[in-house]
Amino acid sequence: METALLAAISMGRDLLHKKIERPSLAKQSSESEHNPDRRNSTVTGFHQDEDGHWVVELSCGHTQHLRHQPPWQSRAWVMDSAQRQEKIGRPFDCGWCAQGSVSDNLVD
């Protein structure tokens, strides 16, 4: 039992230090440059990535993975087709737009 617990703690620690970055831009869109509050987009659709994870498509041109992996992420609606369809057209805070453009983050 202790060995399993130590292994789980070690694995969790490894995951916290892992830096896997994947591109999240589905397409270039002029709309993403003109988003005044730089966060709030609307859901335009969904697709599954090569690993079968659901990805939301946003009006700003960005995409974001929507994983349902309890207890870390509880998004049961992602797994239901009808509930996904209900989200289309609804507001969604885009994390990429909230970060601003690269030039906004540069200091002279």
Across the major sheet, the strand order is: 3-2-1-4
Number of strands: 4
Spans of at least 5 consecutive residues whose pLDDT stays below 50 are 23-36
Task: Work out the radius of gyration.
Answer: 17 Å
Biggest sheet statistics: 4 strands, antiparallel
**Number of individual domains:** 1
Strand content: 15-25%
Cα(first) to Cα(last) distance is: 55 Å
Number of helices: 4
Q: Classify the secondary structure makeup into a structural class.
A: alpha+beta
- Secondary-structure element series: HHEEEHEH
* Estimated helix fraction: 25-40%
If you average the pLDDT, what whole number results? Answer: 74
Question: What does this entry look like structurally?
Answer:
It is a single chain. The protein has helices spanning 2-17, 30-33, 81-87, 95-99, and strands at 40-48, 54-58, 63-65, 91-93. It is α+β, with helices and mostly antiparallel strands. The protein has one domain (23-100). A hairpin with a 5-residue loop joins strand 1 (40-48) and strand 2. The radius of gyration is 17 Å and the shape is elongated. It starts with a helix and ends in a 9-residue tail after the last helix. Mean pLDDT is 74; it is low at 23-36.
